[in-house]
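quick q for whoever's on today - can somebody do inverse folding on this one?? i tried earlier but teh output was garbage lol. tokens:
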């Protein structure tokens, strides 16, 4: 998770870490990457680049702040990536 030096009190350390611990199942690893006061607030693209540099997993997923992932949401995306690891995969949109 990337925190873009938000001025919101509930997104600052240690408040954000407490909220994550209560929202994420036990045993799940979530690392908070912060842009820091040297960069200040950063835009969307710069935030994603910071997150990509800090990532260590085999698959990189970007979700915007308003997105709420349902159980099983990643399965079809990961199946597509398993066929060709160079793919950029986007979910379908249901209206």
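ok took a stab at it. sequence:
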């Amino acid at each position: 998770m990337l925190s873009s030096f938000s001025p919101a009190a509930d997104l600052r350390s240690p408040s954000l870490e407490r909220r994550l611990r209560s929202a994420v199942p036990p045993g799940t690893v979530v690392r908070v990457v912060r842009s820091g006061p040297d960069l200040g607030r950063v835009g969307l693209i710069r935030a994603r680049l910071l997150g990509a540099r800090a990532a260590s997993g085999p698959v990189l997923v970007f979700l915007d702040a308003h997105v709420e992932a349902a159980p099983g949401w990643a399965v079809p995306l990961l199946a597509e990536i398993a066929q060709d690891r160079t793919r950029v995969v986007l979910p379908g949109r249901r209206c």
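fwiw Residues 81 and 87 are 6 Å apart (CA to CA). also The chain is about 35% helix and 5% strand. so keep that in mind when u check it
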